[in-house]
Design brief:
The complex is a heterodimer of chains A (361) and B (133). By secondary structure, chain A is mainly beta. Chain A is built from one helix and 28 strands. Chain A has a single domain, classed as YVTN repeat-like/Quinoprotein amine dehydrogenase (Methylamine Dehydrogenase, Chain H, 7 Propeller), CATH 2.130.10.10. In chain A, the strands form seven sheets. In chain A, strands 1-28-27-26 form a four-stranded antiparallel beta sheet, with no helix packed on it. Chain A has a four-stranded antiparallel beta sheet with strand order 2-3-4-5, with no helix packed on it. In chain A, strands 6-7-8-9 form a four-stranded antiparallel beta sheet, with no helix packed on it. Chain B has a single domain, classed as Actin-related protein 2/3 complex subunit 5 (Serine Threonine Protein Phosphatase 5, Tetratricopeptide repeat), CATH 1.25.40. Classes of the chains: A mainly beta (361), B mainly alpha (133). At the A-B interface, helix 1 of A face helix 6 of B. Chain A: Belongs to the WD repeat ARPC1 family.
């Protein structure tokens, strides 16, 4: 796998989302706006600028079937943007938050969306036809700290959240009138809104980037202690696997298939994890080529100088001259990768914190 | 009820201290026999104790094993990767002592260990505030 296309949109991108036909991408260039670019004749052109938020837009999601964009921001608001003719019309959704909103995701059926916030709550919003507005229901009591990431199970009811208290939790978001009560399929389907199904306490440090596998059988999330956790059989007795790896922590993950996950984070290079036939997950390789291996204090641009000075103390200044600040060869990103989004069934796309948007096949 | 629990805990601490002393003696004898790699493996075995006194006693033994190592690369080659994280924690404890010879040795080991285990190892030793050494 290699980067298929490289695009420079802005200095810094906070979050992004693709349109249903993948011809347009919406992102926030680290300010209070949402920019929408369209691919016209192999060139990206800015077609819309959505300006409603007062502070940085921290999350954007573009629904696949209903073609709606939801954006949430540090200004504690969220807007649902509907396409009416050539314009995008915003509808304010009152979340009743007293802290920033950090992440947002449409549910698989796109009749709800979940917002994780710094107020230790998750808001699940649904559309009320009679009053023609979006109502938010809040999951209040369970989180001990900011909710960093949310992910919907394919059944449109279970929601997984990760938080800076190090735990990953799965809740039921069954809303009467919005979700239909299915006959018991044998899985633990407690239909009460806000009920916590399971709490996973695997990481002692902040947890980020939770995602369900396409079938909903496996859950993956990352901890800030350079570990990635894979959990099967969510329920009373889940099976968890902790995979420790040698590099800097990840921020987000993506299930490319049932058995393959790509993680992105502070190493500026997407990492591929795969499960073998027995279900054991392990790190396979980096996506971008890395000419310099991790051996020696020369690895990593900022670290090499620091390590040189550190080790020079032990070697009494002998090695100081040999260490140069060297950049990782062949890495496409210069800075921390913030999030990764699926482009189509075969490919996936990553976004870069500092400049560009890259497409990987 | 709380008093009973406290006395049970201190009993356990005494037990643990005895175990640590035995471990220390074993490490010393291994060092005298020039079996440095065995010494460090013995030192890294077992969960770090909870109690502060036990931790300090444990550190003395581990410190002896660390200082005795001459061939750092060889030691790391024969060490099981599952011990990398705990070794990194002890190295940081050594670096925090500020003692010149300890720090020199710990820096040497830190360099080689980072080459082998990567930044993830450092991060895990920093992030784990529950199982400290």
């Amino acid at each position: 796998m290699a980067a298929v296309a490289v695009h420079q949109f802005a200095q810094c991108i906070t979050c992004h989302a693709w349109s249903p036909d993948h011809s347009m991408v919406a992102f926030c260039p680290n300010n209070n706006e949402v920019h929408i670019y369209k691919l016209v004749n192999d060139k990206w052109e800015k077609v819309h600028v959505l300006q409603k938020h007062d502070q940085i837009v921290s999350g954007i999601d573009w629904s696949g079937k209903s073609n709606r964009i939801v954006s949430v921001s540090h200004d504690r608001n969220s807007y649902v943007w509907n396409r009416e003719g050539p314009e995008w019309v915003p509808t304010l959704v009152i979340l009743r938050l007293n802290r920033a909103a950090l992440c947002v995701r449409w549910s698989p059926k796109e009749n709800k969306f979940a917002v994780g916030s710094g107020a230790k709550t998750v808001c699940v919003c649904y559309y009320e036809q009679e009053n023609n507005w979006w109502v938010s229901k809040v999951i209040r009591k369970k989180h001990d700290s900011s909710v960093t990431s949310v992910a919907w199970h394919p059944n449109n009811i279970l929601l997984a959240t990760t938080s800076t208290d190090g735990k990953c939790r799965v809740f039921s978001t069954f809303i009467k009138g919005v979700d239909t009560r299915e006959s018991k399929t044998g899985s633990s389907s407690d239909p009460k809104f806000g009920e916590q199904i399971v709490q996973l306490d695997l990481s002692s440090s902040w947890a980020f980037g939770v995602k369900w596998s396409p079938s909903g059988n496996t859950l993956a999330y990352v901890g800030h202690n350079s570990m990635i956790y894979f959990v099967d059989d969510i329920g009373p007795s889940p099976l968890a696997q902790n995979v420790a790896f040698c590099n800097l922590p990840l921020r987000d993950v993506l299930f490319v298939s049932e058995k393959m996950v790509i993680g992105v984070g502070f190493d500026c290079n997407p990492m591929v994890f795969a499960a073998d036939k027995s279900g054991l997950w392990s790190f396979i390789r980096f996506l971008g080529e890395k000419k310099e291996s991790l051996s020696g204090p020369k690895s990593g641009s900022q670290f090499s100088e620091a390590f040189g000075k550190l080790y020079a103390q032990a070697k009494h200044g002998l090695s100081n001259d040999t260490v140069e600040p060297s950049k990782i060869q062949g890495a496409v990103h210069d800075n921390c990768i913030n999030c990764i989004a699926l482009l189509n069934k075969k490919g996936s796309q990553t976004k870069r914190f500092s400049t560009s948007v890259f497409l990987f096949r | 009820m709380a008093e009973v629990k406290k006395s049970v805990e201190s009993d356990n601490a005494e037990d643990i201290l005895t175990k640590i002393e035995n471990k220390s003696l074993k490490i010393e004898s291994l060092i005298k026999q020039y079996k440095f790699i065995e010494a460090i493996k013995t030192a890294l075995e077992g969960y770090p104790p909870r109690d502060e006194r036990c931790k300090s006693a444990n550190w003395i033994g581990v410190h002896k094993a660390l200082m005795a190592i001459k061939d750092v690369e060889g030691m790391l080659r024969s060490l099981d990767p599952q011990y990398y994280d705990i070794l990194m924690k002890y190295i940081y404890r050594g670096l925090s002592t500020g003692n010149r010879t300890t720090c020199d040795q710990c820096l040497k080991i830190h360099e080689k260990l980072t080459e082998k285990a990567g930044f993830g190892c450092i991060l895990r030793s920093l992030a784990d505030t529950v199982n400290t050494v």
